Amino acid sequence: MNINAEPIKKSLYDKLKAQGVNRVKLCFSGGSDEGFLDVFLYPEFDYKDEAARNLVKEVENWAWDVYSYSGAGEGNDYGDNITYDLVENTVETEEWYMERTYGDSSEGELVVEDEE
Questions:
Q1: Model-level pTM?
Q2: 5: nearest Cα among 96, 66, 89
Q3: By three-state DSSP, how is residue 18 classified?
């Protein structure tokens, strides 16, 4: 699933810029019928600070509203990363996924045991 980047709302953009944020990275993941989101702001903030946590929460709420990421799948992990560069005014999207990989196998003779 290649995700399309959604426009960031102006009030959030202005708040991020005022707080010195130059990049926002949204990391969505799913695969087992539940979506997850990790939000990263750069430069990194001291997340012990309540204002920083509130800003991350505001970005998270906005992202869930505009992306509605379900995480539906068949058990294989996958995800999408969206990076908003507030200095260059660009957006980068990338998708990732895990594949099932089989290792070595062996074959042997079937033994049928007599019942007593």
A1: 0.80
A2: 66
A3: helix
Confirm if 80 and 3 have CB atoms less than 8 A apart: yes
Tell me the one-letter amino acid at 98: M
Contact assessment for residue 78 and residue 98, using Cβ atoms and an 8 Å cutoff: yes
Read off the amino acid at residue 29. S
Q: Of 6, 31, 15, 2, give the one whose Cα is nearest residue 84.
A: 6
Q: What is the pLDDT of residues 17-39, one digit of tens each?
A: 999 999 999 998 887 777 889 99
**pLDDT digits over 75-88, tens only?**
778 888 999 999 99
Enumerate the domain spans of the chain.
10-97
Buried b (16+ CB within 10 A) or exposed e, 29-47: bbbeeebebebebeeebee
CA 114 and chain centroid, separation: 55
Q: Is the pLDDT of residue 1 over 60?
A: no
